[in-house]
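Readers outside the structure-tokenisation community will struggle with the description of the input data as it stands. What matters is that the chain and its backbone geometry are given together, residue for residue. For illustration, here is how one protein appears when written out as sequence plus structure tokens:

…
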Amino acid sequence: MIRIDILTAVPELLESPLGYSIPKRAQDRGAAEIHIHPLREYGKGRYRQTDDYAFGGTAGMVLMIEPVFSCIRQLQGERTYDEIIYLSPDGERLTQQGVNRLSLLTNIIVLCGHYKGIDHRIREHLITKEISIGDYVLSGGELAAAVLVDAIVRLLPGVISDETSALTDSFQDGLLAPPVYTRPETFNGWCVPEVLLSGNHQKIAEWHDEQALQRTKTLRPDLLPDEGLSS
């Protein structure tokens, strides 16, 4: 089982993404524990302040160091964490291979930035890994955290009914997934490829491999080694 603790200034943004579908199934089946920690509970003063102006006159508000530090230290006092992850546009790009590695861990903290980000001292002294889900900026790290958690927990044993399904997803073998079809066999004059109806498992597997390679060459040639581009 994996435990994921998510630190956020806006916990409401995570309630729906993590309360349904695969993340909920992972929790119901005991494959994952997902705990959301509102940083406001660690804020000080009458209004439980979690953000403040940046030194130097930079525009925008910044998550303060004290609430984040207090929450992380409390969690570390209860267990040892394999990674403390900060979701940031300048982190390493999230890949399927990276998700595979994270799914093998036991305890993870995920820190969601908000506003203009977080006090940089947190990144210097507490964070062990920074991850980006793409070259763009969101209002906060909550949606990125939902993406990361969903990608991790769907790989856990027993979460997906047919565990081979996750192994055939795009990027697992460095290629995009081949096309998939379901009933009816013909709709509006559009037909399912005959090979998929043949019952010949070897030919079907070969068709899947060919389609995966061709789609990758066409849509994401950057995923292939140079020699693959000329073949």
Q: What stands out?
A: Confidence is low (pLDDT under 50) at residues 227-231. The domain at 2-153 is CATH 3.40.1280.10 (Alpha/beta knot). The longest strand covers residues 83-93.
